[in-house]
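In the previous chapter we treated chains in isolation. Here, by contrast, the input contains two separate entities that must be folded as one system, with a combined length of 1094 residues.
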Amino acid sequence: MALSSLRNTTLGLLIAAALLASCESGVDPLIGEPRPFTVWGLLDASADTQRVRIFSIEGESGVDRPGNLDAVVTSTDLETGETLTWRPYRVTYESGVTGHVFEAAFRPVHERRYRLDVTRSDGAVSSATVKVPPEVEFTIERTDTSPKVFVYVHGEGFNLLGVEMRYEATNVPPGNVWPTDLKRHPAVFYPVEVSYQGTEEKTRDGVRYDINMVDDFAVVEEEYKNKCLVTEGNPDIALRRVEFHFVAANEAWDPPGGVFDPEVLVEPGALSNIDNGYGFLGAGMVVAERWIPPKGLRDFIGFSSEAGCSLVPSATNPACTSPPIPCLDNVTDDIWSLYL
Amino acid sequence: MISRRPHSSYFLAGLAAVSLWLAPTLVHAQESAAVRGFVTAEDDGQPLQGVHVILRQGETLLGGVTDPDGIYLIGRVPAGQYVLEASFIGFETFSDTLDLAAGDSRHLDIALATRQAAMDEVVVEAERETGAARVTAGQQRVLPQDIELIPSPSVSGDLVNYLAAQPGVVSMGDRGGQVFVRGGEPAQNLTLLDGMYILQPFHLLGFYSAFPSDIINNADIYAGGFGAEFSGRLSSVIDVQTRNGNKRRYEAGLALTPFVNSARLEGPLVGPISFLGSARISTLEEVASLYVADDLPYRFGDLFGKLHIPISRNHQTSVSSVHTFDRGTLAEPTLFGGNNEIRWKNTALGVRHLVLPRSLPILGEALFSWSRLETEYGLREEPSRTTDVDNYNLEVNFSNFGQRVETRWGFFVRNVELTADLGGAYQNIVENFVRSTNAGGWAEPEFDLGNGLRVRVGAVGQFFGNSGFFLEPRIRAVIERGKHQWSFAGGMYRQNILGLSDRRDASSIFTAYAEAPTGEIPTALHGIAGYRISPSASLEISVETFYKDLKNLFIAEWTSFPRFTTRLQPAEGEVFGVDLRMELRRRNFYAFLNYGYSSTRYDAMQASLPLWFGTDQLSFRPPHDRRHQLNLILSGSVAGFDMSARWNIGSGLPYTRVRGFDGFILMDGVVDVEGIEGFPRVIYDRPYEGVLPMYHRLDATIERQMSLGAADLTVQVGAINVYNRANLFALDIFTLQRTDQLPFVPTAGIEIEF
């Protein structure tokens, strides 16, 4: 009885199993995205050439988009009806990734509305409509003897974004810390940006930013230390130029909570004004003023006014000894191309 | 910060409570007698569990059954002459006459002689004490012979195969080393081996764990509703007690299979001291990979040793130690994953001392253990993420034995040290060291209220690090009426050490550990109700419903960046379900059919949800929410061959579907869109709204045991995934790469024991 029971049950089990073996086991997690494009860029009322970066939305991961992009980009001045077709070109980054950029030679007019259309050959369109904010007026109060700078921005109807002081600084390591086959000892140009976003004080007709370049120097020095560009015994950082800049952006260019948190904004649609697509097209005016503090002020702030300061490897910080500058992953100058 | 004064007050209050607790016991001890001792098998000195030890005086019967250590203790015995009987199926009944005076405290060790003619009966009866359908409010006792019924690619069994065959237990398949019990996550399981905390006990290949059946004495599985003796975990308890080495003679075993080779040695050392040692090492890379088409990049092994030291008639000490290691790559290298090899090691040492005081009807247990889990992910020379967990555990437990009430209580101090280097993956913290102390006490009297009703009411009072003092009530009730049994259990549970995994990707089993934020300790409320019926001596059917309410959970937050994250978001959860079990045991035929329905839902509360999804809370099925699961196990003996088969089918697990991929540029001001390469981004659908294909698999083995004089030889052949089902193991939602579980794999093994 037990034997026949076991046999029958086993037989039944095997038949059921054989039937189930043919069940569907495939899975396609890619359900598709009807929106054709992701668009990133801004219409800059202070520039004569406008650029946007376009990603086609693909079924494979990564940002590389080799080959031509099936897209035509046009912009239309909604007040005059004038339409421009943007010129496509490809950019190859150091990693080998190909990106698609479109540009058009025109200067957007303040307080006008523009529509940008990105059209695929099958007719699918991603588009954005933006209004260029009013012209911004600003004044900078500074002297050749004080590290304090006051920036006044007048007017309303725009958001101030990317408010930063940019310190274009340089460090020239001595010859003995470079590889011996390096023919020329380059200066390492490593600009540091110190954010003043959100530090504004209200004034009667706008806002004011109080900048203290002595405080900023501490940030710059810390950044240089992190990159092993200054070490013990060699604190010198040579300042070439400073720049105060910001974007007077249209009111739609306003992140949730007023903070540009990439962990929040990375979610598709989190800050997007693209119809039938993703990304963001801003409009505004990039405002920048550059100047060179005089030698005495540079010294007072903490920078070195000497060009040729040296980099001595640290005896106590192994990260700064071998190789002498191991952390230059985001220095724009390709120092390794200096090898012959 | 807790001030010193309250600590002192609590300590004094605790001492006072203990004094009050003990006072009646001391008074009764003066007025009545007590009998206690250890019951062992005469032939190998192993403690016998479940032996009925009774004192008979006319119509009066007093007594109970021995615990896993073979201990019996009959307290509050009125003075008089009694006949003590110890009986166990398969053994000769022991009988002795005792004259007990008031205040007597008699210690009597009993060694039962085997009744040779009844060996088969022993097996049958011993199994009936446990059994796959013999579940009482979430609690189940497992013996090695239960484990041996489940087919496995090794000749001897492993506890993980038994666990995976239970309803309500979800594994990610045949690899991964992750076990989810009734909706709970792996880090919410308390896994103990002789009292040692083992955080990652399951090997990479899902057929193996740190618990081979040939070292196990018994394992108590609590799928929920566990009593006050256990605390510090939210979900379940797997409490494994190993057996002692043979006290009379040396024994050895050697097993060779294409998956794992193992060796075991045990025997007497000096006097009554015995040892047990076991070692296993995987052979997948060398042997199984020769004939399996898939890559099997797994290396694992475990080493266990135990000394059992009877110090005197009243004192016993055991020292156990275990070391396990795992190394392997669960899924194909991916564009963003790089080298995704994971490695972990468990090392643990535990000392357990048992004492039966001469003057009190109390069983005392002192336990100290240390364990360490070291985990690495990435390149062996330069891992991208590492985490170490050190557990120090000191506890003292007591059992007071009375006629109608048995009280168990104790104290504990646990210290956990967490060290992590996560490369900024955990809340952007690169390096992290946390020391967390948890101390408290517990008490749980069990009342025999007559008419088959037993009620256990208890509580745990404990401090968690800097979060303060918490009280966790527990209750368990069982009503037995003839062939029917009803059982209920419930309680409140807290866990201050979090296990953080990025569960978006099943192959990403790297777990980082962290202390719960102050005042936000994860909390669970359990409720279980069960019914069991034994219509005949060979058939047992049980049904059990369960519910868990989970608060203050922390789960990985959503992000569209294709990378590992253990950045946390708060969440709440709810689990409910029903388990059905039917077990049939005949002399040469065994069948176990079970079905489990389970629903697990989390409510995520990430701050960005209103922006992303337009809601404050997002309800979703976490990726271990297997709704339906069915297991059928058949085993039988025909013409001297033992056959065993297991068929398992489970509904598909939830996952997040992908709509497409693009690039992300942070437009935070003056952005040069030409100069920035952009970050890869995944455009997800709503979280976990997709369902993976169902999972099913048939494993089968046939084995034959032969006697070669002084040695016993066992030969086994079998197959995993008999009908070659392409079961999905992992789907990398960043790259859409699929990794399958093992295909059809024939196995063979040989074991020799002498």
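Chain A has two domains: 37-131, 137-338. Residues 137-338 of chain A form one domain. Compare these points with the single-chain example from earlier in the chapter.
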